[in-house]
Amino acid sequence: MRELEARFADELVVIGVHSGKFRAERVTANIAAAAQRLRVEHAVVNDRQFRIWRAYGVGAWPTAVLLDPAGGIVGAVPGEFLAGQLAPVIADLIAEFDRAHAPGGARLRRGPWPLRLPPEPDGPLAFPGKVLAVQGGRLFVADSGHDRILELQVEGESSHEGGVRARVVRVVGTGQRGAMDGGADQASFDRPQGLALAPGRLTEAGLAPEAGVETLFVADAENHAVRAVALPTGEVTTIAGTGYQARRPNKAGVGRGAALSSPWDVELLSAAPPGAAGPGAVGPVALAVAMAGAHQLWRLDLTTRAVEPWIGTGREDLSDGPPLRCTLAQPMGMQLVGRRLYFADSESSAVRFAGLDGRDGPEVETIVGKGLFEFGDEDGQGGQVRLQHPYGLAAGPGPGGGEALYVADTYNDRIKRVDPVTRRSDAFVGSGEPGHEDGDAGTARFWGPQGVAVVGRRLFVADTNNHAVRVVDLDGAAPVVRTLEIVD
After folding, report:
1. Which residues pair with 321 in a beta bridge?
2. Same domain, 298 and 242
3. Which of 32, 46, 122, 128 is the most buried (most CB within 10 A)?
4. What are phi and psi of 394, to 5 degrees?
5. Angstrom distance (rounded) from CA 301 to CA 173
6. Cα distance between residue 379 and residue 356, in whole Å
7. Pairing of strands 15-18, 43-46
8. What is the residue range of 73's domain?
9. Does an H or E element contain 482, and which?
């Protein structure tokens, strides 16, 4: 749609009609925040009762309806479409109504349609998407609304009562939307999301050990690319993606010649299972890529730069099974624990995992959630659980010394805790009402949290619509939520 808006800036007026599937998508404040986060620069109508949907006979998300200057319906395109499909029709329509005797006497009026956009967020963060916590107090934040990556050092108590303080160590990216490679102050991103950190320098032959050097991998969502940041220099290199969204499904490629579709998270994969390390053992050799736009998980070989579909047929649905027969629905967050790759399957409001030791490849199983139209805010077990479009998850210590998954239940404005063994899910922190309030588990408020990360006994949350990072202490039976104060 952005391509059409740019190509026909003086002739085409776009009006987004938002008929929300999820309950949270029918709240006007949430729609306004999402429009600002996605940099929507056209009018949006909240069609929460589906009146416009029914009036135009719409039956699928998305659907594009083209109207002529006289108000007549030229046609409708249900489902995903490419700008090239509509551009010739729009061009012909413009030419037709430019003629002296246009049908119905209507004439085309050129010029921009004035709109007043909301002000930019005032603060160090704008719609942070993902966070990555590392031992030693290091915290990486995908500052998605500012198109950059921040490296922070968490230092302790802040000047605000009960808060936590962090200092900015490094900024990677100019803060202007773009796709430039180069140094930390020259490179640019477009809504970066998932992050993964590996020891060593990324070379043409893969990751090479080097003292004091690390590589930060970034899912650069709107550039449809995977980027690598060399630390400590901050040099940015594109390692996969053409910069344009893939137009053909299930098409593998190599490096910058591979077309990707909205990569939303990255996770390091190892060549051998834990415990198999020994003489000659190798470290991370590949990246799992949550390809949200293709409803699949892909695999990027760090040695050859080959990238290909790995798990999921590409059909949007929820079904378990072998890698090339199971179906996913917009996976947007991942966490590798041992030989299980957990992921948040957002559109199906589910938490699932791929067992990497399956006989025929990674076998997918669903832990909680049931299907594309089964969502809500209900605790329980397995298929009884209802989440609402979770964006991310992280593994960390659970009650009784066990392991738990902490899930950013985004549209419920909560963090849930899921036991991967019993498949039990419970509300962990957040009242379920949108807002920004610190405090204990039941009174604290979040607004659209998307990213979570655990290190030690701390849970970090990218509280996206609040333009903040929140900190949850996992010690004790009563977790407390605090806001991270970021200082330069």
Report:
1. 364
2. yes
3. 128
4. -150, 145
5. 25
6. 28
7. parallel
8. 2-105
9. strand 480-487
Locate 365 and state its tokens: 């199983």
Q: What is the pLDDT of residue 103?
A: 56
> Is residue 446 a contact partner of residue 411, using CB atoms and an 8 Å limit?
no
Contact 149, 192 (CB under 8 A): yes
- Token output for 335: 């966490």
The bridge status of strand 331-337 relative to strand 306-311 is unpaired
Q: pLDDT at position 105, please?
A: 59
Q: What is the pTM of this model?
A: 0.91
The CB density around residue 357, as the number of other CB atoms within 10 Å, is 11
Helix (H, G, I), strand (E, B) or coil at 160: coil
- Distance from C-alpha of 341 to C-alpha of 335, rounded to nearest angstrom: 6
State the Cα–Cα distance between residues 74 and 204, nearest whole angstrom: 51
The whole-number pLDDT of residue 83 equals: 85
| Total number of domains constituting the chain | 2
Residues of the chain whose pLDDT is less than 70?
A: 100-106, 157-162, 271-283, 476
Give start and end residues of each alpha helix (H) in 150-192: none
Question: 365: buried, middle or exposed (CB in 10 Å: 19+, 13-18, 0-12)?
Answer: middle
Looking up tokens 């900024």 gives 171
Return the beta strands (E) in 360-479 as ranges: 363-368, 380-381, 392-397, 403-409, 414-419, 424-429, 439-440, 451-455, 458-463, 468-473
Mean pLDDT taken over the chain: 92
CA 292, 294, 297, 301 dihedral sign is negative
φ, ψ for residue 465, nearest 5 deg: -75, -15
CA–CA distance, 107 with 30 (Å, rounded to integer): 37
Q: What is the pLDDT of residue 470?
A: 98
Tokens of 349: 């409001």
153/68 same-domain check? no
**Whole-number pLDDT of residue 104:** 58
Residue pair 351/345 in contact (Cβ under 8 Å)? The answer is yes
Tell me the pLDDT tens digit for each residue of 83-100.
888 999 999 998 888 875
Smallest CA-to-CA distance from 434 within 21, 9, 33 is with 33
Please indicate, yes or no, if residue 117 is contained in any of the structural domains.
Answer: no
CATH code of residue 256: 2.120.10.30
DSSP 280: T
Side chain identity, residue 22: F
Instruction: Tell me the residue length of the chain.
Output: 488
